[in-house]
Amino acid sequence: MNKKLKIAIDGPAGAGKSTVAKLVADKLSYIYIDTGAMYRALTYKALSSKSDLHDGRILQSLLKDTNIELEITENGQAVILDGNDVSKEIRSSEVTNNVSFVAAPQQVREEMVRRQQELASAGGVVMDGRDIGTHVMPDAELKVFLIASVEERARRRFDENTSKGFEADLEKLKEEISLRDKRDSEREFAPLKKADDAIELDTTSMSIQDVVNEILHLVSERAG
Ligand code: CDP
Ligand code: CDP
C-alpha cells in the first residue's frame, strides 16, 4: 500500500467519525484532521468575545485574526487556539449547541475550507466533518458517509459522558443531536450531505473495530 490516499469521512453527530478516523489514520500512519474541532474553536472564541454568532461578516473578521492548530500530543490531538490549548473547552455543551450557527455563513466556510485544503495538500490524510467529500476534498480517493440511528448516537454520547463522570440525560442528548443535524443539513452553504460517490456505512449495530476494518478494506482496494 504505497499510494498515499485522501480519505474523507462525513456524517451526522455521534456516528463515530472522529473515533474511527483517528484509528484509521494511526493504522496507515496518515495525518488526521478533525475539521469539527476548527469550527468549535472559532465558536469558543466568538462566545468568549461575545460576538454575534449569526453575523457572517463579524465572524469572518474574527476568523481572519484567529490561528487554529491541530497538534498531536501523547494524549491524542490537541486544539491550539491563538497559542492556548482549548481541547477541553471546545467540547462544552455551550460550544456544542452554538457551533452550527457559527459554521453556517458562507464567509466562514470559505476560509475554513481553504485552511483545511492546505492541511490536506500532501495527501496521506484522513479528514472528518460534514462537507469533506462534497467540498473540502471532492477528489478524495475514498469517501465514507457514516450513519447510525439517532437513538444509538445519543446512547453513545450518553455512555461517553457518564464514563467520564459527567452527568447526562439521554432524552436531552437525543434532542440536541437531532437539532444540530437539522441545522447542519438544512443550511444553505455546504450542508451535511452524502457525496454521490461516497460509500454509506450504517454503524448502528457495528463495533468501532468493525467500522475500522471495513474502511481499511476499502483503502486496500484503492491503494493498489
Ligand atoms: O463530533 P460531533 O459530531 O459532535 O461534531 P464535530 O465534528 O465536532 O462538529 C461540530 C459542528 O461543526 C457540526 O455540528 C457542524 O455544525 C460543524 N462542522 C461543519 O459545519 N463542517 C465540518 N466539516 C465539520 C463540522
Ligand atoms: O465524531 P462523531 O461525532 O461522529 O462521533 P465520535 O465522537 O467518534 O463517537 C461518539 C461515541 O460513540 C464515542 O464514544 C465512540 O467511542 C462511540 N462509538 C461506538 O460506540 N461505536 C461505533 N461504531 C462508533 C463510535
Automatic annotation (TrEMBL):
InterPro entries: Cytidylate_kin (IPR003136), Cytidylate_kinase_dom (IPR011994), P-loop_NTPase (IPR027417)
First-tier enzyme category under EC: transferase
Reaction catalysed by this enzyme: dCMP + ATP = dCDP + ADP; CMP + ATP = CDP + ADP
Keyword Ligase: no
SUPFAM superfamilies attached to this UniProt entry: P-loop containing nucleoside triphosphate hydrolases
GO MF annotation, one: kinase activity
Domain Cytidylate kinase: 7-220
Protein name per the record: Cytidylate kinase
CDD domains found in the cross-reference section: CMPK
Keyword ATP-binding (UniProt): yes
One Pfam short name: Cytidylate_kin
Binding, ATP: G11, P12, A13, G14, A15, G16, K17, S18, T19
Family per similarity comment: Belongs to the cytidylate kinase family. Type 1 subfamily.
